[in-house]
Design a protein that fits this description.
The complex is a heterodimer of chains A (197) and B (465). Chain A is 32% helix and 16% strand. Chain A is an alpha/beta fold and 197 residues long. Chain A has a single domain, classed as Aconitase, domain 4, CATH 3.20.19. Chain A has a 7-stranded mixed sheet with strand order 4-3-2-1-5-6-7. In chain A, strand 6 and strand 7 form a beta hairpin. The longest helix of chain A has 13 residues. In chain B, strand 9, helix 6 and strand 10 form a beta-alpha-beta unit. Chain B is globular, with a radius of gyration of 21 Å. Chain B has 465 residues and is of the alpha/beta class. Chain B has 16 helices and 19 strands. In chain B, strands 5-4-3-6-7 form a 5-stranded parallel sheet. In chain B, helix 2 packs across helix 5. The chains are: A alpha/beta (197), B alpha/beta (465). The interface between A and B is large, with 53 and 68 residues.
């Protein structure tokens, strides 16, 4: 996982509520043993027509969304299956941030472990962003994790919450396994105290 | 109860960091584990406690003749990978030919791997099933599978608690599935996010272990981290004598400690809700989220009755996909397929309920009915009771165990546009096959649809005993 750096990107809106991980990456694409290449199948059933050609009406197929790194999604994004293939597919496509009013717990955990930042905003700010994107499809946002702020064109900022631990992991590109491994002694002790249970 | 289990499994909690939580049982399957084992190899790590780890293959395996080779090359490769990983890391594997194989959340409890008071994880969101035993059980991602394999621990932020009390008595023809669908219709698909649900109340106490598992199984569909039910004599009776249950003196000590688990009288929950079991009808979903459900005699909501804009849009989008209209009744709606099975409703009592409705009847012309037992043990038991004969003489397909059409990874799937009544857990777009349209319901309601070819109130087909 690389370090999370400050960046500026266009925003693509996908505003349905309860976008589940089966929509993000349909189950038939889970028969893989690798993490790579899943971006090609991101939102497959919305992105492609039954004959396999790109659906021209789907927003990610429009030329102006090429290279976009920020997804603006409806409530409860990432609900359903625990598949980590969902953040793998999103980051494989190029997304670095998803903004929503709420995220499903497992998705959020999975995203943070893969350098994908879930930004939770209040419904009013979410609505404001939706309005701005609707007026200006080329709207750009700057994301600064260190200061926990999103900056709109013109300089308006709003802040977002993230727990200290996840923030440090993302900024330094470190993963959690290294952290847990530091407690080997405590784990062993726990196991001994519980009769190897 | 949650608090007691949580506290007794904390290895360490540093300031500003999540807790390091010890995991007692780790279940793995073919789909969400390969990348975790790759991670272990890359770091030169071993599986810390293979004795606490159990593997099975369930998601992408065929439910037809197991002696035939798997025709799907990718699925075959993934399954082969699990054989390799289990062998290399010394993990017990219930493979495709094992007499005790089945869906991970069916065989875990069946073999006695699940006890009260345990922490249990699996790279599968329906791990919440095991909470029916008073365990803290939840689904994790593949990175976390790797963490548990390597350290037997997980980093966890403490969730909040949510009491769902179900008072009263269920009416005839109404089952555990209807309780959970009713809860989901009440709180919505994200209504329990960040919480662990504890189900309480007399209607829950009166459920069998199989029924309790159905309720806990779908906790995740409300966004809950886990669902739990306090262990009692019904729990102990289920566990006694199972292959991996404690035996002899250890059993007695275990039961004694399990009796200490239930939530203390007067303990506070962060949230609470009360449902009245006697007011629950057989339930059915009409949309593409498990929270979009209603009583079988109900009508789909009119758009103008929903004040929240995004919820209204969600309903509009769902109905467009489902080919249904606001205000419409579902009773009498034509269906093409019935699926009875899954980790939600693939247990022996589910088979018995479906068989009770199908006995002496034929499935409606043009309807395809798949009955897929949740495990080979369920299959054997059903066959011992002659249930397979009832299904087959009605015209249904009686299959080998597996996840099958719940996730449609193995070729068991809907065709675009088809309507199905399904006892599984998710009615998401394309979940049961691209373009397929799912009505979630109980095994009773599914069997009723099988014999009539339409969405039917099962209470019209069964007599009150």
């Amino acid at each position: 996982m690389g370090k999370f750096v400050t960046f500026t990107s266009r925003v693509v809106p996908l505003l349905a509520n309860n976008i589940d991980t089966d929509q993000i990456i349909p189950a038939r694409f889970l028969k893989v043993t690798d993490k790579k290449g899943l971006g090609d199948n991101l939102f497959y059933d919305w992105r492609y027509l039954p004959d396999g050609s790109p659906n021209p009406d789907f927003i990610l197929n429009r030329p102006q969304t090429a290279g976009v790194q920020i997804l603006l999604a409806g409530d409860n994004f990432g609900c359903g299956s625990s598949r980590e293939h969902a953040p793998w597919a999103l980051t494989g496509f190029g997304f670095k941030v998803v903004i929503s009013t709420s995220f499903a717990d497992i998705f959020k955990n999975n995203a943070l472990k893969n350098g994908l930042l879930p930004i939770v905003v209040e419904p009013e700010i979410h609505q404001q962003l939706c309005n701005l994107v609707e007026i200006n499809g080329a709207l750009q946002l700057s994301i600064d994790l260190a200061s926990q702020t999103v900056t709109l064109p013109g300089g308006t900022k709003f802040s977002f919450p993230i727990d200290e631990f996840s923030k440090t992991c993302l900024l330094n590109g470190v993963d959690e396994l290294g952290y847990i491994l530091r407690f080997e002694k405590a784990i062993k002790e726990y196991e001994n105290n519980h009769n190897g249970k | 109860m949650f608090q007691k289990i949580w506290d007794s499994h904390i290895i360490i909690q540093e300031p500003k960091a999540p807790a390091v939580l010890y995991i007692d049982r780790h279940l793995i399957h073919e789909v969400t584990s390969p990348q975790a084992f790759t991670g272990l190899r890359e770091r030169g790590l071993k599986v810390r406690r293979p004795d606490k780890t159990v593997a099975t293959m369930d998601h992408s395996i065929p439910t037809t003749d197991p002696s035939q080779p798997i025709s799907d090359e990718l699925a075959a490769k993934q399954i082969q990978q699990l054989y390799t990983n289990a062998k290399e890391f010394g993990i017990r594997l219930y493979d495709m030919y094992n007499a005790h194989r089945g869906i991970v959340h069916v065989i875990g409890p069946e073999l006695g791997y699940t006890y009260p008071g345990m922490t249990i994880v699996c790279g599968d969101s329906h791990t919440s099933t095991h909470g029916a035993f008073g365990a803290l059980a939840f689904g994790i991602g593949t990175s976390e599978v790797e963490h548990v394999l390597a350290t037997q621990c997980l980093l966890q932020r403490k969730p909040k608690t949510f009491e769902v009390r179900v008072d009263g008595k269920l009416a005839h023809g109404v089952s555990a599935k209807d309780i959970i669908l009713r809860l989901l219709a009440t709180i919505g698909a994200g209504g329990a996010t960040g919480h662990v649900i504890e189900y309480t109340g007399v209607a829950i106490k009166n459920l069998s272990m199989e029924e309790r598992m159905t309720v806990c199984n779908m906790s995740i569909e409300g966004g809950a981290r886990a669902g739990m039910i306090a262990p009692d004599d019904i729990t102990f009776e289920y566990l006694a004598g199972r292959e991996f249950s404690p035996k002899g003196k250890t059993w007695e000590e275990a039961v004694k400690s399990w009796k200490q688990l239930p939530t203390d009288e007067g303990a506070l929950f962060d949230r609470s809700i009360v449902l009245d079991a006697s007011s629950i009808e057989p339930m059915i979903t009409y949309g593409t989220s498990p929270g979009q459900g209603m009583g079988i005699s109900g009508r789909i909501p009119e758009l103008q009755t929903i004040s929240n804009l995004s919820q209204r849009q969600a309903l509009e989008k769902a109905l467009a996909y489902m080919g249904l209209k606001p205000g419409q009744r579902l009773l009498g709606q034509h269906i093409d397929v019935v699926f009875i099975g899954s980790c939600t409703n693939g247990r022996i009592n589910d088979m018995r309920q479906a068989a009770m409705v199908m006995k002496g009847r034929k499935i409606a012309a043009g309807v395809r009915v798949l009955v897929v037992p949740g495990s080979q043990e369920v299959k054997r038991q059903a066959e011992k009771e002659g249930l397979d004969i009832i299904f087959k003489s009605a015209g249904a397909e009686w299959r080998e165990s597996g996840c099958s059409m719940c996730i449609a990874m193995n070729g068991d799937q809907l065709e675009p546009g088809q309507y199905a009544v399904s006892t599984s857990n998710r009615n998401f777009e394309g979940r049961q096959g691209k373009g397929g349209r799912t009505f979630l319901a109980s095994p009773l309601t599914a069997a009723a649809a099988a014999v009539t070819g339409t969405v039917t109130d099962v209470r019209t087909l069964i007599t009150k005993n």
